[in-house]
Amino acid sequence: MAAKNTIVISEARKSLFPSAQALISVAVSFNQGDLLVLDTGTGLLKVPTLETEGSTFLGVATTTVIAGLLKRPYTTDVDASAAISDVPGPVYGVVASCVAKTGDAFAVGATVFLDPATGTRGVAATGTKVVGIYQGKNIASATAGQEILVALGARYPTDTWKF
Questions:
Q1: How does pLDDT run along the chain (163 residues), one tens digit per residue?
Q2: Are strands 94-100 and 122-124 parallel, antiparallel or unpaired?
Q3: 159 is a domain residue
Q4: pLDDT given for residue 14 in this prediction
Q5: Residues of the domain holding 23
Q6: What angle do CA 145, 53, 91 make, to 5 degrees?
Q7: Residue 157 domain-assigned?
Q8: I need a labelling partner for 31 at 20 to 30 A (CA). Which of 57, 72, 78, 119 fits?
Q9: Nearest by Cα to 29 from 60, 65, 75
Q10: How many domains is the chain built from?
């Protein structure tokens, strides 16, 4: 999925890792707007592949990282000589546009769960790891690709949900 600034309200914006430089390697790539977790085995940021990885949920990416480097606005033959710049970490305490799992029903103020099967911004109405609170009108059955607003929290380091 393409990078997208999904943050629509930034009322209590926080980050557990304001500088994510120590959590990035050449093996790390993600887009702005992706929901991110901490891989505690490698100590690196990653896009989750399983709902249970929500136990280390950190928030939404504010930048795009490709092979461990911030995406640059241009590409030249001398990119390799560019200095490695700081990488801002994922943020929580924001309302972001996420993609609802097709067919799920969402009620105003209901908890929302990570759903990597729906995509890098995917959320579901049911699961085991709460990552946010639904902010829109009641939805009886989400359509494919439907974007919804979610107030995102974080779960790392103790697998407890916080704003």
A1: 678 888 888 878 999 999 999 999 999 999 999 999 999 999 999 999 999 999 999 999 999 999 988 887 665 655 555 556 788 999 999 999 999 999 999 999 999 999 999 999 999 999 999 999 999 999 999 999 999 999 999 999 999 999 8
A2: parallel
A3: no
A4: 96
A5: 7-152
A6: 70
A7: no
A8: 78
A9: 65
A10: 1
Three-state DSSP state, 12: coil
The whole-number pLDDT of residue 96 equals 97
Can you tell me the distance from the alpha carbon of 96 to that of 58, in angstroms, rounded to the nearest whole number?
13
Cα–Cα separations (whole angstroms), residue 14 to 1, 42, 90, 107, 129: 25, 23, 9, 26, 19
Q: What residues contact 153, with CB distance under 8 A and at least 6 apart?
A: 57, 92, 93, 130, 131, 132, 133, 161, 162, 163
DSSP 122: E
Cα distance between residue 34 and residue 120, in whole Å = 5
Find out whether 30 and 49 touch, Cβ atoms under 8 Å: no
Phi, psi (degrees; rounded to nearest 5) at 91: -120, 155
**Structural domain contains residue 89:** yes
Judge whether 43 lies within some domain.
Answer: yes
- Where in 15-153 does DSSP place strands (E)? 35-39, 44-46, 57-60, 65-66, 69-70, 94-100, 111-114, 122-124, 130-134, 147-152
